[in-house]
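Need a sequence for this fold. Nothing fancy.
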């Protein structure tokens, strides 16, 4: 048998379908973990795998979606993975169908939300996935298939675990929602940037929706990926008939739609929920004879955050302000671990239009190896811009790159052997775009030619590590003209030469004016000259109006600004308020905005400690109720509205909830101290239904409801209908919220509602979960459907208002 990588190069590869669906049909009882069936019902599992192989699948995934240490003790986990691999191998050996057959170790999400939104630490997630990977490798799988991931951070943890524990090919497939984004906000392009950087062999999309709803995600993956793209849609959207869930697209329609993806360039195809072997067989028929599309290297340079990719096609602004050099107040903040100060510096640069933020916390008295990763974590929790990790310490660099949620910019490598030996392996392992400073053991050359030579040496050395030229941005070093009158000229000349060689460039533009008065005057002129020479990335102070004027005018002058729209917006909004003296240094980094008080702003921006302080301050002059109704709830509403309108994503919602929580905590303490009783709105009983152990959604709903003042009784996950009824009767709660993530557990939700209707006919029931639809919610008799956590809040607010009326 050929190896998977080779096979991938030349063929359209067929994957399997919805193994979970078949397990249900085979009678997997509610609440039983499907992975146990590898041992207890090996014949059933083998028959399912065999069905797919017979249908023409080249790759079948082991029945190990939830096989991890959160769900199984170590010894049982090992047994399960062993049996699962054996089952797939036996099926391969005893089936006809495709000639080339491979077994993939299936790895699904942990079911937990990672910090800072949830409570699962990134490194714990890496360790969790690593255990399963090692077992898969031990029992001889051909490749690792990470699938149905809905959080970029958890996806990174899983891929890192795979890469660190084997040399097998790793396929990574995510579940994008109907909005084309991951639950935590990532676009397909952002995922491609990160995953390709880390060396994923295949990148794809599976589950959540059917092929019709997947179009834009597939297009975006194909447009950006330089590796083969995988597509595994559901058999359409779920519908119910008589308590059973099925999907709304038949074999033929499915196969025709997926064949269209193959024509566009998808190279690995199969199905997810609802796709039986008949779907795969039909797919094979409908795609036979199609030429596998060429996989082209996309040479676009980009970095990413947890939400989006930033491309270097047009000049990119990198904010320089998170850097202690020359800033006493910043150094003091670092020393005092005044995180809020550093975050505020980040937020203000984002608001001023920075595309990327440089993060440098190196200062004597600072333990950079601990503090750099900590600040990266803090910043990426509240700011969605890609970060440029700036340190000369490779240990601090590695720690920061490891926990970074995306593809970072790395500042920097240089022509010294020690630097290249230290940095290139990190760029290779974690992915990233690296800035290459044109200096070496002999220092910074005086001439442009010599700087370009160093750049070429660095690019050649990078190539030895497999780092492509597009992932190296050359910085020919801006030096102050106050020390050398030709300094700027040489740098500009080097820019021109580098550009001619097809290299991207960056500069610390502000360096050029060190030691001069009115530095911004010089900086802005130099910036314009550098842009003219093709500068790709400018490290500047985004708070400087002069610099932004130059940037917007340049884009307009170069025909890069349609109808001068960007320039006009900037000029009319910013320049009238322009006060040149004040603009040089931001006097204060207060995050107060035009229309928001400090508390409201802190909650909106998800700054927890700032929110607590601001609330404490307000409590001196306002009542708790005034603060809640005038500040906290409006702030949550604002973020909630942004979320509904897709201007904000789940992480922002959750960080705001954290901010509100810390404010509530202050209010609670204040009320206890002053003897005021705390009145809650009405009670709601929450539970993830029997058979389902995914509680992310329910936890989010719980947190949000609590923040809105509801009295939440959370019964946890895998809760029986009887237990839910018992708690409703005991507490007299007027409302119940039920959650189910998997199609397999939706019937259990219907059962719970039936029992509630019998025993507690007056209770109002709201349901939610990934596979539910509004229609379905109605069918099973719920009073409300929460498309997301905020809708659950709206439902409860209305219920509470009704209760108050009566
Ligand atoms: N190339 C690359 N990275 C870099 C540089 C570069 N990083 C650091 C620097 N150069 C770019 N960043 C800055 C940050 C601050 C200033 C200049 C460049 C600066 N600071 C004022 C000072 O030192 O006086 C502080 C003024 C204040 O208090 O606000 O000028 O070239 N790859």
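Here you go.
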């Amino acid at each position: 048998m050929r190896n998977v990588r080779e096979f991938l190069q030349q063929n359209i590869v067929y994957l399997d379908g919805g193994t979970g669906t078949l397990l249900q049909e085979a009678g997997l009882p509610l609440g039983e973990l499907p992975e146990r069936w590898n041992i207890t019902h090996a014949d059933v599992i083998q028959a399912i795998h065999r069905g797919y192989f017979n249908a023409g699948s080249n790759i079948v995934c082991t029945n190990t979606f939830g096989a991890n240490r959160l769900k199984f003790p170590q010894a049982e986990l090992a047994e399960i993975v062993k049996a699962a691999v054996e089952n797939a191998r036996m099926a391969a050996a005893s089936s006809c169908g495709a000639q080339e057959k491979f077994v993939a170790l299936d790895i699904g999400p942990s079911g937990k939300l990672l910090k800072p939104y949830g409570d699962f630490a990134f490194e714990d997630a890496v360790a969790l996935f690593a255990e399963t990977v090692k077992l898969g490798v031990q029992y001889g799988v051909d490749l690792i298939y990470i699938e149905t991931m809905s959080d970029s951070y958890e996806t990174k943890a899983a891929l890192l675990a795979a890469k660190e524990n084997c040399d097998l090919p790793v396929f990574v497939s995510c579940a994008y929602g109907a909005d084309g984004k991951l639950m935590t906000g990532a676009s397909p392009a952002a995922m491609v940037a990160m995953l390709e950087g880390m060396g994923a062999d295949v990148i794809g999309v599976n589950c959540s929706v059917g092929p019709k709803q997947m179009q834009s995600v597939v297009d975006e993956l194909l447009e950006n990926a330089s590796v083969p793209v995988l597509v595994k849609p559901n058999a359409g959207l779920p519908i119910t008939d008589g308590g059973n869930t099925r999907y709304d697209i038949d074999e033929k329609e499915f196969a025709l739609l997926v064949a269209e993806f193959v024509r566009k360039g998808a190279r690995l195809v199969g199905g997810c929920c609802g796709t039986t072997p008949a779907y795969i067989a039909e797919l094979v028929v409908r795609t036979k004879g199609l030429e596998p599309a060429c996989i082209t290297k996309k040479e676009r340079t980009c970095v990413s955050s947890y939400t989006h990719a930033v491309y270097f096609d047009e000049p990119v602004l990198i904010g320089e302000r998170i850097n202690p050099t020359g800033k006493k107040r910043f150094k003091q903040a670092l020393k005092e671990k005044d995180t809020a100060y550093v975050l505020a510096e980040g937020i203000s640069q984002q608001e001023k239009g920075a595309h990327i933020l440089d993060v440098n916390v190196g200062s004597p008295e600072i333990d950079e190896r601990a503090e750099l990763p900590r600040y990266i974590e803090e910043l990426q929790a509240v700011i969605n811009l890609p970060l440029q990790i700036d340190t000369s310490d490779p240990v601090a660099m590695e720690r920061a790159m490891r926990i970074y949620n995306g593809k970072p910019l790395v500042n920097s490598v240089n022509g010294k052997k020690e630097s290249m030996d230290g940095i290139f392996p990190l760029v290779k392992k974690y992915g990233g775009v690296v800035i290459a400073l044109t200096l070496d053991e002999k220092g910074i050359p005086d001439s442009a030619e010599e700087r370009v030579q160093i750049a070429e040496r660095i690019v050649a050395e990078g190539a030895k590590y497999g780092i492509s030229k597009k992932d190296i941005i050359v910085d020919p070093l801006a030096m102050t003209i106050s020390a050398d009158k030709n300094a700027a000229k040489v740098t500009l000349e080097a820019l021109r030469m580098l550009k001619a060689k097809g290299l991207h460039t960056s500069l610390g533009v502000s360096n050029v004016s060190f030691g001069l008065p009115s530095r911004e005057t010089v900086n802005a002129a130099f910036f314009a000259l550098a842009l003219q020479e093709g500068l790709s990335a400018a490290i500047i102070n985004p708070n400087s109006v002069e610099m932004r004027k130059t940037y917007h005018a340049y884009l307009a002058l170069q025909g890069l600004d349609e109808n001068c729209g960007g320039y006009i917006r900037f000029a009319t909004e910013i320049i009238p308020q322009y006060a040149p003296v004040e603009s040089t240094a931001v006097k204060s980094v207060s995050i107060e905005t035009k229309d928001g008080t400090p508390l409201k702003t802190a909650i909106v921006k998800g700054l927890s400690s700032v929110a607590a302080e601001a609330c404490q301050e307000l409590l001196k002059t306002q009542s708790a109720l005034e603060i809640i109704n005038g500040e906290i709830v409006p702030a949550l509403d604002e973020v909630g509205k942004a979320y509904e309108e897709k201007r904000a994503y789940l992480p922002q919602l959750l960080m705001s909830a954290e901010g509100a929580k810390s404010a509530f905590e202050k209010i609670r303490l204040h009320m206890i101290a002053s003897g005021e009783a705390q009145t809650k709105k009405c009670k709601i009983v929450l539970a993830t239904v029997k058979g389902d152990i995914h509680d992310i959604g329910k936890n989010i709903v719980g947190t949000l409801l609590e923040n809105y003042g509801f009295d939440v009784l959370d019964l946890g996950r895998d809760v029986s209908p009887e237990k839910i009824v018992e708690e409703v009767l005991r507490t007299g709660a007027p409302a119940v919220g039920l959650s189910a993530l998997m199609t397999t557990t939706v019937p259990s939700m219907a059962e719970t509602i039936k029992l509630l209707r019998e025993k507690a006919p007056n209770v109002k029931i709201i349901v939610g979960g990934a596979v539910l639809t509004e229609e379905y919610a109605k069918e099973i008799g719920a009073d409300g459907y929460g498309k997301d956590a905020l809708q659950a809040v709206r439902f409860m607010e209305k219920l509470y208002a009704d209760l108050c009326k009566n």
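For context: The chain has five domains: 4-286, 312-543, 545-581, 598-674, 683-805.
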